[in-house]
Amino acid sequence: MRILITNDDGINAPGLVALAEIAAEIAGPDGEVWTVAPAFEQSGVGHCISYVHPTLIAELGPRRFAAEGSPADCVLAAIGDVMRDNPPDLVLSGVNRGNNSGENVMYSGTIGGAMEAALQGLPAIALSQYLGQHTATLADPFEAARKHAPRLIRQLLDHGDWTSDADFRLFYNINFPACDAASVKGVRVAPQGRRQGVRFESEPYHAPNGRRFLWILGGSQTSPATPGSDVDANMRNYISLTPMRPDLTCHASLDALRIMEEG
Questions:
Q1: Half-sphere exposure of 245 (CA within 13 A, CB side)
Q2: Are 165 and 34 in contact (CB under 8 A)?
Q3: Which residues, 6+ apart, have CB-to-CB distance to 159 below 8 Å?
Q4: Binding-site sequence positions
Q5: Which molecular function terms from Gene Ontology are attached (predicted)?
């Protein structure tokens, strides 16, 4: 199996090292793991693509490339250039430093990389490691992901919905809880949730020279969330598995809006 890995924390992120080990285990001794990751951190860029300027790409080693762009750019770079003659069989994005459950999904570059792969017709999985007080005391904060990801990915490859049609291909979002590997209680298939009262905010800051800047601040990651959701599962030390697709349509509202159709 030929696997492409990328992330949004940057080419030197420890989570990418963990993902490379996970991917190597999945690919097997006869497989290949290719890395095309951002040269610099791209957290919070979502599904951004750099179509208004060129993207510099550099080969850092065998099957290892850094691109000055977003995770989605990296997937495009792999498909259109680095791996053009032999495209990947699977795309893995992560392992993100911090969770991408709940409302974080909408901002995540990790999700953006997996989503771009799905739009390109490739099987894709985003992986993120919830961080907290417990993981801060671990020698390896990515321990839960390293231990449990290979088995879960194999199960997805065997039993996941990988069909591709004229609409949107599914991809998968996996979040590992903020605990050591032995404390993980299991896996929960869960919808994307929403933390109560959590919003991103801007905070003004005046530099010593008088110039005015803004910091973008996130909310609490431990706030209560929708029961049965990905956040809820993670807070109870379960791995969350969420099927997703690049379709923001609220299908439940379509019929009610038909009354507005004309002609």
A1: 14
A2: no
A3: none
A4: 8-9, 43, 96
A5: 3'-nucleotidase activity; 5'-nucleotidase activity; exopolyphosphatase activity; metal ion binding; nucleotide binding
Binding-site residue positions for a divalent metal cation = 8-9, 43, 96
Residues 220-240 as b/e (b if ≥16 CB within 10 A, e otherwise) read ebeeebbeebbbbbbbebbbb
Look at residues 93, 137, 128, 142 and name the one whose alpha carbon lies nearest to residue 231.
128
Q: What is the pLDDT of residues 63-88, one digit of tens each?
A: 999 999 999 999 999 999 999 999 99
Task: Indicate the domain borders of the chain.
Answer: 2-193+225-260
Q: Two tokens at 145?
A: 């992901």
Report the distance separating Cα 197 and Cα 220, nearest Å.
9
E strands, the chain, where? 2-6, 32-38, 57-61, 64-67, 90-97, 124-129, 171-176, 186-189, 201-206, 212-217, 238-244
Could you give the C-alpha distances from 3 to 31, 90, 186, in angstroms and in order? 8, 5, 26
The DSSP element (H or E) to which 256 belongs, if any, is helix 254-257
Q: What is the CATH number of domain 2-193+225-260?
A: 3.40.1210.10
Q: Which two tokens stand for residue 109?
A: 């570059």
Query: How many residues are present in the chain?
Result: 263
The model's pLDDT over 16-28, given as tens digits with 9 standing for 90+, comes to 999 999 999 999 9
